[in-house]
Specification:
- With about 700 residues, the protein is α/β, with parallel strands linked by helices.
- The protein is about 25% helix and about 25% strand.
- The longest helix has 26 residues.
């Protein structure tokens, strides 16, 4: 129910509420929900799932409360009800944090007719009708609709209801380039240029920077408006179309106490580890900001929107669990408050209850790793048409190899941010500025190691091509021939090296489908070389004509102790496309050799396991997410198969007694401690087990 501002400020309404809000329940209302809304069902579910925060549809495109603002469209079924207010009151009685959801991306016909200046427009100036529903219109984020009208919506909600935040979905308005008069004028005033004709067209880099600045300023306006009325409250935009890396740091430090990632599930050829990747990616830019992962109870599909349906239970649980194991804590969303299909309820309760069980240990630990995957973000996109899959392939290879790893953004290459990592992996970091290349070079000189592939550092931060690799000197290579497509490429083993381990019985393996010609520094080691091209048809002509020549893998050891490995072909992309095990082994061998020592944590056994290492001052929790499943590489997962035995080994102080406990099974175990390592065998596990080792006094 409505509450005056002075009644809402108490010890429970404090600025640190985002840190305590760790399990979120979201109800996304449909317009007709006021007709059959069952508040008791939702409040019981919040209690049963141990949710401690909720996000409830309030306004924007449709208001679910009795708004007093002209052109703020009320649900035609609202009558004298207030479903939003009812849920706010019930959630507060459960001690939950509350966010009000608004959606500014479209308006109804009456608002469009009264305020045509609010609408997104194409290059010819035509207003853009919604692609999925007639007679509603897309808005432009650079007009007064966002700057003024949505600001007033936020103020009304915060003034009238006891909420901690406004959560904005599709807050960026039209995702493409809007040619509204307001957008044209703002871009012209700030840059002296005209809006680009399309992505990567003339003035595109300037547009990317301008859009980021404008959206950042917009968030600041909204957040300040909310905090003026209720100091502990925040305005928090959904990061569905953007990521934390795309926002100005000053804005984030001031206005983003928490990140909500709208990656609601997987579809097509996508692995379940993609859930946890969201947490890693945001930590790569803002390691101290809490992250919550929004999960849909229904299936996700790139083409079809079956939003009012239910995904298989184990698929939903796996997505949630892999997310929180990697630090992206759980949030579920249900579209439509009616419940024709109840099958989604038990998996939500199970997954949330599982998080509540392990939270007391994990909440005080931080996720760490010796290996980091560089997240390249400059100019928004990779340039090359074959740029898809590089990161996915390396990610899959590292998961298969049981390598715990984190992300680090290319915007954060300071010595302080790089120093925790022993190895940094560049799957295909094409866009690297001179300063970034210099930072990575200094990292290697100080003893760090690099594993790089394909066109890493061949373009500057604006996407302009270099004549040679920006990292060429440290990698020990010089460009002789730009990337070209090949069909029948092989690389030959040309000497004993750690990178050739595991290839017993063969003298060559598959190479890439896009390759570069490079020369190697005389001091470098070249354990693989390309076999010169030969035909792939007719079959009688499929044989090599010449001995291996150009380097296919270049390894260097540096004076400071660092090591580098370079692959002049699309190793990650072709592994992701073809999943040939030799390519995955190459990645694993490269990282193992670059690390140059025994890893701090190892987990050995059969199966596909996503690992995360949570560390404290005198304790380590090793999370094993069991992804061993015939549906791991194409969902949906129908059942969780028991994990075979796993051997967990962790470096520990030699002079301290070590205790061990399995957090999910809730049993203490006795590790074997010798030679500075604690070793134990995990006999089996379901979807998740967390091995907690503690040597505190």
């Amino acid at each position: 129910m409505r509450a005056e501002p002075e009644q809402t400020e108490s010890a429970t309404r404090t600025p640190d509420w985002p840190e305590r809000a760790t399990r979120w329940a979201q109800i996304t209302l449909a317009e007709d929900d006021p007709l059959h809304f069952d508040a008791d069902f939702w409040l019981d579910l919040m209690r049963d799932s141990r949710s401690n925060a909720t996000c409830i549809s309030a306004g924007g495109y449709i208001a679910y409360y009795p708004t007093q603002l002209p052109y703020h469209y009320r649900s035609q079924y609202l009558g004298d009800t207030d479903p939003f207010g009812t849920l706010v009151e019930g959630a507060r009685k459960l001690g939950m944090s509350v966010m009000a959801r608004v959606d500014p991306h479209a308006v109804h016909a009456d608002a469009a007719a009264a305020h045509p200046e609010w609408l997104a427009r194409d290059a010819e100036g035509n207003a853009l009708e919604h692609w999925a529903h007639p007679d509603i219109w897309l808005t432009c984020a650079f007009t007064d609709y966002h700057h003024e009208f949505i600001t007033e919506v936020a103020r009304e909600i915060v003034r009238e209801y006891d909420v901690d935040a406004i959560f904005a979905n599709r807050w960026e308005g039209y995702y493409g380039i809007s040619y509204s008069e307001a957008a044209r004028k703002s871009f012209r005033d700030q840059t002296g240029l005209e809006l680009p004709a399309g992505e990567h067209q003339e003035n595109w880099p300037e547009y990317v920077g301008w859009r980021r600045r404008q959206l950042s300023r917009l968030v600041g306006i909204w957040d300040q408006a909310v905090r003026d009325l209720r100091p502990h409250a925040r305005f928090i935009p959904n990061l569905g179309a953007l990521a934390a890396r795309d926002l100005d740091r000053e804005l984030v430090e001031k206005h983003y106490p928490i990140f909500f990632i709208d990656k609601q599930g997987r579809s097509g050829i996508e692995a379940p580890w993609a859930a946890g990747r969201n947490g890693k990616r945001n930590r790569g830019v803002f390691p101290d900001r809490p992250v919550r992962l929004i999960t849909s109870v229904g299936p996700e599909h790139h083409q079809y929107r079956w939003k009012d349906s239910v995904a298989p239970a184990e698929e939903v649980k796996t997505w949630i669990v892999d997310g929180f194991a990697q630090g992206a804590l759980p949030w579920f969303t249900k579209f439509n408050a009616s419940i024709p299909d109840h099958r989604w309820v038990p998996p939500i309760v199970d997954a949330f209850t599982l998080h509540a069980k392990v939270e007391p240990v994990l909440k005080d630990l931080r996720i760490t790793a010796e290996v980091a995957l560089l997240d390249p973000t400059r100019a928004g996109q990779l340039r090359t048409p074959d740029g898809i899959g590089h990161e996915d392939g390396f990610y899959q290879a590292l998961v298969e190899a049981r390598v715990p790893f984190e992300f680090i953004s290319d915007q954060e290459l300071s010595p302080e941010r790089l120093s925790p990592f022993k190895v940094v992996v560049l799957a295909n970091a094409e866009h690297l500025g001179d300063e970034q290349c210099a930072a990575l070079t200094r990292y290697v000189e100080a003893g760090g190691s690099l594993v790089a592939a394909y066109q890493s550092s061949l373009y500057d931060e604006l996407g302009q091509p270099r004549g040679d690799f920006g990292l060429g000197e440290v990698l020990g290579v010089r460009l002789k021939e730009p990337a070209r497509a090949v069909k029948n490429n092989y690389i030959a083993l040309t000497g004993e090296h750690r990178l050739t381990e595991g290839f017993t019985g063969t003298t060559r393996i598959i190479g890439g489908t896009h390759v570069l010609g490079v020369d190697a520094d005389p001091a470098a080691q070249v354990p693989f070389r390309f076999i010169p091209d030969f035909p792939d048809l007719p079959m009688e002509e499929v044989y090599p004509r010449a001995a291996p020549d150009r380097p296919a893998v270049v390894c260097r050891e540096h004076a400071g102790g660092g090591r580098t490995v370079y692959f002049p072909f699309n190793l990650g992309a072709i592994f992701w496309e073809a999943l040939q095990s030799d390519h995955g082994l190459l990645v694993a061998n490269a990282v193992a050799w670059a690390l140059g020592k025994h890893p701090e944590v190892t987990v050995e056994g059969s199966g596909l396991v996503d690992l995360a290492v949570h560390r404290g001052d005198a304790e380590v929790a090793v999370a094993l997410v069991n992804l061993t499943n015939p549906m791991a590489m194409r969902g949906a997962i129908r059942e969780t198969l028991p994990l075979p035995p796993q051997t967990v080994s962790v470096a520990v102080p030699a002079d301290r007694p070590v205790r061990a406990r399995l957090l999910v099974a809730e049993v203490d175990v006795e590790p074997t401690v010798e030679n500075g390592r604690a070793v134990l065998t995990l006999p089996t596990a379901g979807l998740l087990e967390i091995v907690h080792l503690d040597w505190r006094s």
